[in-house]
Amino acid sequence: MAELVREELSALGAIFCGPGEWEVLSCSETDGTVFRILTRAEGFMDADIPLRLVFHLPVNYPSCLPGIVVNSEHLTRAECEIVKEKLLEQAETLLSEPMVHELVLWIQQNLRHILKRPEAGGGSEKCTSAASTTVDDGLWMTLLHLDHMRAKTKYVKSVEKWASDLRLTGRLMFMGKVILILLQGDRNNIKEYLILQKTCKVDVDSSGKKCKEKMISVLFETKVQTEHKRFLAFEVKEYSSLDELQKEFETAGLKKLFSEFVLRLVK
């Protein structure tokens, strides 16, 4: 990690020192650093809006733009995307120098102006991931396949923590050598989950050395449909047979998904 970035992270940790305001999610010499900042900004009609900002600093940052994900239960999905775009536009003016704190200050000062613009007014889907028993157009579902888990206990705890932190529901499923993760929640939160899954040293290699997950594949992604079951929690489940696993999918209204993507993993 470059000294400039190390100093910036240290400063950010000191600035955002309140409960839950700052968390480093992953740090790697090859993939950079991912961290989350919780802050608040004045929105439309002087409302105080909480913002969850996830930054990914690539290894060649600040010579390149950071990756940014914006979430807020008080903003629509369209508004979250507009805020992200405006942050990236502002970041382009700050290239070659540490910029995260400047970006946070900028959004705190300018959020209300951004939200007043017509381009930020489309759509009514909130950037939230709370599952419910009614149809929610903002709810997405993703099915992931893992090739293996060597450090199973540690790996499972990490998956459970990420799902809880990102308010994702679903299943971590084991059936023989088949390992599947079914996630439901806000699409941005699922994307954030995938960043964590791919950048954190969550498993060990054949020599017992900590390693990142390089053999994960996204089998399927879709908006949750009317016929799909809404999972109210994230659970880890073991299945003794293919029939038992199939029943889980069928009960969730995912019979077609099972036939198209899961069956081929066991043939």
From TrEMBL:
Q: Which PROSITE patterns match?
A: RWD (PS50908)
GO CC terms on record?
Answer: cytoplasm; nucleus
Which BP terms in the Gene Ontology apply to this protein? Answer: positive regulation of hypoxia-inducible factor-1alpha signaling pathway; positive regulation of protein sumoylation
Q: Which residues form the RWD domain?
A: 7-114
Compartment list: Cytoplasm; Nucleus
Keyword Cytoplasm carried by entry: yes
- Is Endoplasmic reticulum there in the keyword field? no
Q: What keywords are assigned to this protein? A: Cytoplasm, Nucleus
Q: What is its main location?
A: cytoplasm
Top-rank taxon: Eukaryota
UniProt-listed Gene3D superfamilies? Ubiquitin Conjugating Enzyme (3.10.110.10)
One protein family per Pfam: RWD
Q: Which PANTHER family match?
A: RWD DOMAIN-CONTAINING PROTEIN 3
Q: Any idea what this protein is called?
A: RWD domain-containing protein 3
